[in-house]
Amino acid sequence: MSAPVFDIARIGPGEGSEPPRTRLRSDAPAQPLDGTWQFRVSASVLDIPDDTWLDGTAGVWSELVVPGHWNLNGFGLPAYSNVQFPFPIDPPHPPDHNPIGDYRRAFSLDPGLAAAAAVPGSRILLRFDGIESAADVFLNGERLGSTRGSRLTHEFDVTGIVRPAGNVVGVRVAKFSDATYLENQDMWWLPGIFRSVELLARPSGGIDDAFVTADYDPATGRGELAVRVAAEGDVGVRIHELGIDTVVRGTGPGTVDTALAPALVEAGEVSPWSAETPRLYDVVLSTAAERVSLRVGFRRVASADAILTVNGRPVTLRGVNRHEHDPEHGRVHSEALARHDIELMKQHNINAVRTSHYPPHPDFLDLADEYGLYLIDECDLETHEYEYVEWRGNPSTDPAWREAFLDRIRRTVTRDRNHPSVILWSLGNESGAGSNITAMADWVRGHDPSRLIHYEGDWSSRDVDVYSRMYPSHEEVRRIGEEALHPAAFDATADEVRRRGLPFILCEFGHAMGNSPGGVKEYWELVERYPRIAGAFVWEWVEHGIAVRDETGRRLIRYGGDFGESVHDHNFVIDGLVSADRELRPGLVDYAAIIAPVVFEIAADRRAAAVINRYDHIDLSHLRVRWRRERDGAVIAQGELEIAAAPRQRVVVELPPEARDDRAAPEVADVLTLEAALRDETSWASPGHVVARGQHVRAGAPVREDGVAPAAHLFDRRARPLVLGTARVVDPPRLGIWRAPTDNDRAAGWDEPDLPPYAERWATARMDRMLTRLRGTERDDLALTAWTRDGTPSYDAAIDAVWAWRAVEDGMLLHLDIEPHGPWEVDWARLGIDLALEGAPVGLDFAGYGPGPSYPDTDSGVHFGWHRVGAPDLVTPHVRPQESGSRRGVRDATIRTETGDVRVRVLQGGSTDAGVAITVSPWDRRTLADTTHASLLPAPTATHLSIDIAQSGVGTATCGPGVLPRYRVPAFAASVRLLFSPA
Fold it and tell me: What pLDDT, on the 0 to 100 scale, is given for residue 1?
């Protein structure tokens, strides 16, 4: 039997499927259809073979595993774009060249399902949880209907069509369709049946749908269930743990009618659910024909006086945006990977997720309930491409698209409405404003008043319950925070007055692309300062790299443009706190410290410490607070403190005398560390996991003024050392003020829209091509001294330096004095010494802030200690190579190479009271800057060492403000005193 015309250019929702209903766990039989399907792909609708493919015999077929994306399995190639659209904006039409995938599978009913189907009055449903982008569905030659909404569940009634044996299900899927205009969500275009397919028995007299709201009254500590069940007759409601065993009246078969008042069930005193206390109760709903189970959490979400509350207490959302992504499998769900994501989030103090920009796989919500995460559950909607045409014809304003918009929000809310983790419904992302957005909000408000509504795309906020923005400047966030503290102006509009009374969140900030994000600490200071600011969500959790294999079998990570697509946004898809393989990026470690739920403030005299409990609902009894004192790498005292602090309370505790005895001055540092660690095992971490850390560092620096002029054979004719320690110098020391541009350096910051990116400014100033002129040398009894001038081609800007070398018993002293010369109109990237040593790097031992890398505006997650770093961890393996690997506040370091080593110590005097920044890299900066993919970097042959006196921050200019002024490096005079010696 031939399929009818495949209509993928029409406005509206899918048709033929059942009304959306809540996801329930049922004891009714079910049969998964995941696995190997027959598959073929055609270049376009016009190229589909005219055959009888639905009978299961005709045509030439390959095989494809469902769930999966066909263009990640050898049938075409993936493509990435952000705001750009892959074809002309000509709604509702997709392009002519538009791959069409045909799926089919033969099956017989499992015995249990066949028996259920034979019972009079029962039904069988065929469920699809995700098909991108549009599909027609067939069973045994009969068309069941179509789907729209790639990340939305569709169920089809196949009663009377399905047979005990000899069934053939067919699905025709379009890569692009009318639905694509509503799904431009900054991600890979990955067509196919990518979520599970299942047959479900619906027994006569069963429970078709249920909407259960578990409310918590913080004044009394009592809970109440509001129960609506779509079933015939009486429905049992049981919560064994609470002694609840009662009956409510069903509202009839089909779906829940929220216009009808719910049955109220008193639960008595309950333990409330929150992200900090994810207490769940098992609820069983039953009829004679079916038993369904769900887990409820008693909690109340509210907004009053511009404050977001959960269970009557203000909450702070320490959030992240999460796309679903697996480097091999795209958006195919893996419970293990989802669980790993959540455990990493909890370990790094994240308590909230915005499900950007679509509802996640339903199992993710179960995990969020269980582990404790607040969710902004976002509708599968984004029309960002219309920004390219100044929003002309935006579907959000077109009444013809109204039902498509409403269908998407109904399917989102209805599927997920029983989950306590969902505290806000989001109407979508970057789709402008319009009547269809308003219609969605009106429907949500009428359907589920127990939650708040979010949408960032309309700053008037007339349709929402929270005011939301993405990437505002720090100053704008400050002004928004203060709005709630002052009356509105007399001429303020009604919309403005209402907006000022709403809680505020940054639904996106801290764009984590490459070596990033900088400036997050300053944002979070505003979150903590202003009660109106309910939290913020870093963009984003995971980099969307696609894994491929080269001709040698080596695994590589690829980004936009690597698959030959003509419209793409390069590596803008590589922006995450973890890599595609879930390797931690330094930005995650930094963020975890910034948002830590405990803060330590140690007094300068170490007699006391303030402990700030930033948890919203719990005290600190689940944590063990330990203190440790180290002097020059040795632990000299340690102990444990008893801390009692209620939620959001600041207490001061006395520190023991052993923490402050300072009779012996340190050579490197005397460090007092306080750590809050888990007392017991949790679902997401083991006992001893450190939640927060605070330090007080008393730095030492040896004084060395001895020495004589070094032997001539140790230096070249330009007075540059040939050996340092036991390492041979292959590229002599010189000044450096440039760095390999980061992704942020290559972008124009939103705070400087009229200026080119810093990378361009540096290139224009030719800071990457500076030339050195030796102005003179001098040898006397005390030192070998060289005077140099480093200048930029075509300009008169330069840097003068005096290098004074002295030989001492244990090494070589360097006194370096630096003075800018001429006009420097561009800030420097850094100021330091660059050199290269023979042999690839083996590792780095250092006393300073680590163990990971940091920069001036990303230094919250590092702590002072005596650290050892192996070769694989010296630099961050960014997919696109760039500057990375800086260890800051270093006072003593040993650089180990394949052929030698050198120890570097910071001496007293000069401009380095806070230590220096050490970067040890297998590659020079020019190689990093000119290489587009990490896989293209050459095998290392030398160790490239930088010792920096100053560094620029990294900012978030790829999306948001660039480097804050306080973290920039204008031209300045400096000096440094260093001792080089064998290790």
Answer: 47
Catalytic residue from among 155, 508, 630, 883: 508
pLDDT average, residue stretch 807-831: 96
**Chain-centre distance for alpha carbon 941:** 35
Identify the burial level of 764 via C-beta atoms within 10 angstroms of its C-beta, where 0-12 means exposed, 13-18 middle and 19 or more buried. Answer: middle
Tens-digit pLDDT profile for residues 501-555 = 999 999 999 999 999 999 999 999 999 999 999 999 999 999 999 999 999 999 9
Secondary structure of residue 418 in the 3-state scheme = coil
Considering the candidates 183, 378, 385, 430, report the single residue annotated as catalytic: 430
Residue 735 near residue 818, CB atoms below 8 Å: yes
**pLDDT for the residue 701:** 77
What is the pLDDT at residue 703?
81
Q: What is the DSSP letter of 387?
A: G
Q: Give kind and range of the element (H or E) at residue 391.
A: none
Strands of the sheet containing 608-613, edge to edge, are 598-602, 608-613, 650-654
Are 696 and 602 spatial neighbours (Cβ–Cβ below 8 Å)? yes
Environment class of 474 (CB within 10 Å of its CB; exposed 0-12, middle 13-18, buried 19+): middle
User: Distance between CA 373 and CA 393 in Å, rounded?
Assistant: 37
825 catalytically annotated: no
Contact in structure between 912 and 878 (CB atoms under 8 Å): no
Strand runs (DSSP E) across 742-791, as ranges?
771-779, 784-791
Burial of residue 711 (CB within 10 Å: 0-12, 13-18, 19+) is exposed
**What is the C-alpha to C-alpha distance for residues 760 and 741, in angstroms, rounded to an integer?**
9
DSSP assignment letter at 625 = E
* Helix or strand (DSSP H, E) at 496: helix 494-500
The answer to whether 745 touches 756, Cβ cutoff 8 Å, is no
CA 4 to chain centroid: 43
The DSSP line for 698-727 is: EE--------BPPPGGGB-TTS-BSEETTE
Q: For 427-478, what is each residue's pLDDT tens digit?
A: 999 999 999 999 999 999 999 999 999 999 989 999 999 999 999 999 999 9
pLDDT at 483: 94
* pTM, to two decimals: 0.97
- Other CB atoms within a 10 A radius of the CB of residue 88 amount to 9
For the residues 647-670, what does the mean pLDDT come to?
Answer: 92
pLDDT at 4 over 80: no
Active site residue 508: yes
Q: What are the distances in angstroms from CA 383 to CA 187, 311, 396, 428, 478?
A: 13, 35, 8, 9, 30
- Among 856, 829, 753, 756, smallest CA distance to 518 is for 856
Token digits of residue 358: 């679509």
Tokens of 241: 């743990």
Rounded Cα–Cα distance for residues 953 and 883 (Å): 11
Is residue 910 scored above 80 in pLDDT? Answer: no
